[in-house]
Amino acid sequence: MAPPAAGSAPAPKESMSRASGHPFSTPDALPARDGAAVRWRWLWPLALACLGLPFVDVLGASPGRAHHAVTSLAHLQWGLILAVAMLAPTPVYLRTLFPLCYLGWVLRAGWESAGSMQAMLGHGTTMLPVYMVMYAGTVLCARLMGWPRAGSHRHFRQRDLPAFVLVALLLYPAGWALAFALSLSASGADTQEVLDRASYLFQSRYYGVVLLTLPIVLLVTGWRSPAATTARIPNVERAIIGLFTLLFLWLLHIPQEHQDLATRILDHRYLVVTLMVWLSLRLSWRCCVPLLALVSTVLLVCIGQSNLAHPAFAAQRTALLGTELAAIQQVCVLVLLIGSNGRLALRRAADAALVDGLTGVPNISALRRDLARRETVPEELGLLSIEHVDTLMASFGLPAQEALTTALHAQLQASLDAYIMGPGRFILVPRARQPVSWNEVLQGLERFEFRYADTRLRMEPHLGVATLAGRGDAALDAALHAAFRAKRMARQRAETSPVFADTLESGDAGRLAFQTHSLALSLLRQNAVELHVQPIRRIGQDQAEMAEVLCRLRGPDGLLMPADYMEELEASRGVVELDRAVIESVLGWMQAHPDNGGYQRLAINLTGRSLVSEHFRNWLLHKLDLFPGAPGRLCFEITERAIEGGIVRAMPLLQSLHQRGCLIALDDFGTGMQSFDRLQQLPIDLVKIDGAFVRNIVSNVRDRELVRAMVTIANAYQAQTVAEYVEDAEILRLLHSLGVDWAQGYHIARPAPLPQMDGSPAP
């Protein structure tokens, strides 16, 4: 079942077109009560443009039209119509504006015929079928290019350029030319006239698209797009652009024979291209696109003027320069799009760096940014951790963790600003001029109920609070360090109230313990293990038959004793590495010493994490199976604390070891609340009585009676007893009278390195 929503969905962002006030806003982006008014408000100026543009000429010599040598090179209104077809969210625009363009062209024909009504009607009747066909053709061309579009897809993209070139610059003018040619052929015009006028129509529509269609589409869809490069213009760049500009003006100023200004501009058009590309990089779309259209218009006017000055080469020159003009425009647009896409990608990457990738919750980078923007810095911050997040993920999967993070963030945001710092961890920052009660924050989380997949879960939060002494990364890092220590202390003490960092001692001890832990792991992985043994002797005999293996780590400054590193290792998987290193070393030593150094068995301690590890169990049993006879020479010691809460998972390993012939010893017997139960549940062969009951057995009657009871219970379960901390002969004598089987301690022998093991007691 899908998880319930953690909160209400955010309101959708307004489309860019609506925010910028463009005429082609999508209907769903406009209020229903005034959407129509907005459409008509923009329709009037567009209608006037469609009626007026037919009277705007870009004069030039048209190829093949000797009887009408001077004509307009571009029909701008049809470039506008194609832009409307691409951008208009409803057919209302095109259905209104297309007939107005037709009407404007009819009025232009009448104006050219000195107001002859007959000429107007004749032209209108002749061209009506062509315009009807091309209405459908215009819609088809827009559809072929993937327009109109809605929502966030309305931007002109880099991959739209090929379709625009093929359809808008080739297919659209060709459709007009073909429709007009068929109409003329049907009316009985000769072939040459049909070709001439169709060629002219193709040219005029082509230039209309070049000058208006793409600039309008870019301007509308990218109105709010910034410049591709917003960095400050360096002086070197300014100098280079200034030199280019001066060079261009100087070249135009140099008089050349039989060349007018328009021809000189065209001859140096590549300098213009350089400036246009630079403008595409440095100006925003709303500034760059109109300049691009203006420069294209100037170049087209120059083409027209040059054709008038040299009509003999009009056809070739118009075709060549027209192709170059379109190519120049496409290059500039491509530069604009690539730069804009790069900037957009950088902005998205920057935004993504401020939130968690899975949940979208603000992270510590967002915290640093927000603190830098604040007028006043809060006096405190909190570090919150939620217990059992790993268990939640293991039980329900990653979506449950995402849902929990989102729900917790929504809960916390009601009273302060929350930033994620890993699974189940949040940095809490009070808002400006808004006091916060940390106790109430914690109590609110305790009351919070998380629902997921028909399951209701309660939170177990821990909160540490620290002082934020100033602005900047250093102050924030120091506060987070202190808050984390306070949170950790709250977790260790099982506090139900916030722990404040200023009430804690220095963190030097914790830092030292962590360094020792890291050193221990490093030494283990370098196999810097040095084994010692302490003999265990049967009471009443002179020769020790067993010995307990003790591990030391050889560091650069000497030996590390177990008391130095065991507490930190036991809190991590490092103890499993320790157990493996000890067993590897002992088995290797046993292979080199078949007599076991004179001892029947060597006792190796196993930690709780190793006992419940399936991988460790398989590894150990495999090692023993590869070494025949080893189980009969080994004893494995466990403590009640090591198997507490995991006896079911530890049982398979203990039973397998016992079945192979290993002895199992229960260490620190008597210190736990369930020591006697363990004798019944586990395959125990030896019971090691904790030294706390042995050390004062001579003078403490209660200890003596407890040891007597332990011996009786162990015998009832067919387990022998071993007394630890036997430090003098009087203790040994008393243990013998109580029926203890084995003794271990300084009176028996002190620990010695494994190679020196000879079984003799220490002096």
UniProtKB/TrEMBL annotation:
<feature type="transmembrane region" description="Helical">
    <location>
        <begin position="235"/>
        <end position="255"/>
    </location>
</feature>
<dbReference type="InterPro" id="IPR050706">
    <property type="entry name" value="Cyclic-di-GMP_PDE-like"/>
</dbReference>
<feature type="transmembrane region" description="Helical">
    <location>
        <begin position="163"/>
        <end position="186"/>
    </location>
</feature>
<feature type="transmembrane region" description="Helical">
    <location>
        <begin position="288"/>
        <end position="306"/>
    </location>
</feature>
<dbReference type="Pfam" id="PF00563">
    <property type="entry name" value="EAL"/>
</dbReference>
<feature type="transmembrane region" description="Helical">
    <location>
        <begin position="73"/>
        <end position="94"/>
    </location>
</feature>
<feature type="transmembrane region" description="Helical">
    <location>
        <begin position="42"/>
        <end position="61"/>
    </location>
</feature>
<dbReference type="GO" id="GO:0071111">
    <property type="term" value="F:cyclic-guanylate-specific phosphodiesterase activity"/>
</dbReference>
<dbReference type="InterPro" id="IPR043128">
    <property type="entry name" value="Rev_trsase/Diguanyl_cyclase"/>
</dbReference>
<dbReference type="InterPro" id="IPR035919">
    <property type="entry name" value="EAL_sf"/>
</dbReference>
<feature type="compositionally biased region" description="Low complexity">
    <location>
        <begin position="1"/>
        <end position="12"/>
    </location>
</feature>
<protein>
    <submittedName>
        <fullName>EAL domain-containing protein</fullName>
    </submittedName>
</protein>
<feature type="domain" description="EAL">
    <location>
        <begin position="512"/>
        <end position="763"/>
    </location>
</feature>
<keyword id="KW-0472">Membrane</keyword>
<feature type="transmembrane region" description="Helical">
    <location>
        <begin position="206"/>
        <end position="223"/>
    </location>
</feature>
<feature type="region of interest" description="Disordered">
    <location>
        <begin position="1"/>
        <end position="25"/>
    </location>
</feature>
<feature type="transmembrane region" description="Helical">
    <location>
        <begin position="318"/>
        <end position="338"/>
    </location>
</feature>
<keyword id="KW-0812">Transmembrane</keyword>
<dbReference type="InterPro" id="IPR001633">
    <property type="entry name" value="EAL_dom"/>
</dbReference>
<keyword id="KW-1133">Transmembrane helix</keyword>
<feature type="transmembrane region" description="Helical">
    <location>
        <begin position="120"/>
        <end position="142"/>
    </location>
</feature>
